[in-house]
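Troubleshooting log. The previous structure file for this entry was overwritten by mistake, so regenerating from the original sequence record. Sequence copied from the archived sheet and checked twice against the printout by T.R.
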Amino acid sequence: MNIREVFKQAFDSLWANKLRSSLTLLALIVGVFSVIVSTTAVAVLDNFFQNTMSIMGGDVINVSKTPSVQMGGRADNVRNREDITFETAERLQEMLQLAENVSPDETFDYTAKVAYRDEETDPTIDIKGSNQYYLSNNAYELKDGRNFSSEDIQYGRMFAIIGSDIQKELFQTEYPVGKTIRVSGNRYRVIGVLEEKGNIFGSSLDDFVLIPYTTALAVYGGDRNIDIQVKAPAMDFIEAAMDEITGIMRVVRKVAPGAENDFEIETNDSLAGTFDQFTFILYAVGFVIGGITLFGAGIGVMNIMLVSVTERTREIGLRKAVGATKKAIVSQFLTETIFICQLGGLIGIALGILAGNGMAIWIETEPVIPIWAVLTGFFGMFVIALLFGVYPAYKAARLDPIESLRYE
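Regenerated output below.
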């Protein structure tokens, strides 16, 4: 019996019991879908995270009061740490010798409305306060105009650099540099416009106004907890720069010798490591849930094949009577099991990839097809078919042909 005939018989047998086969197929589809949709969604997030690591340059070190990403609850010793202030950033800048380009990172207003003449934005604009190093530390490029100067920062000038979204909304027909915008009753002269950078998790990276942090402190007030970004002189000096920053921060914050740091120092690599732990947990949860579902579906497959053996006892006896071997009987029933498992697997994989990439549409990034998950699903269904199909096939092959022909 050739493979084509075996598959035809398998299909005809399953087609003869449409409802039973459909319910078994549905259970298989749900199991594979639960695995693939979770792994695809996590793969989309992982790919998106890797693509957006340029938001903080590869040679930029971030100093913060608490970890940027933290698994589990926040401990009391972390929650009760002293704030990192602009004065801390200024002292760090003064004392650093190896590392350079210190920029405070603080958003003073998340719901500002920016206006120019009769045009105005929605009240969703971020007002950030920093210095002349913010753009390079965050991989922004100037499209027009200039960056802040040290004098702009020192004297707290009412200058602003705007993101491309604000330019598109307020200056559709005018050149923005040199114009005066209004933010919360204050006037700022636009000295620069940034190149478009895109979105992250559905939130625009170009919908903000950057002003000197000294100006922001005068307008919005101080006493804030901020992050500090510091650029290493080169990638090879990341570790040395981190050691220098750690030593100075311990001195500035008066951390006792032998005591733990009361601040966090992170780079792209450390953030990636934390994110990898998070994605591993998501992958594991997806596989456990999918595995449990597939185990139940496998039991259903065994059940339908055992019922099939019982219903086709006379057919098996007739085939044996005309010369079918045990190997041929086993092959037929195993093929039927493999056929329904792989059909359910393929449908589940396709639906899982489509649904998982809904995450890509939501966060506006490119779709991902996790090849390793697809291959795991394909071969996993093959293993399920063998595990739960061998016994029914073996039972069919052992039937006595004479007794089978007498079966009613």
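The chain has a mean pLDDT of 83. Archived copy saved in two places this time.
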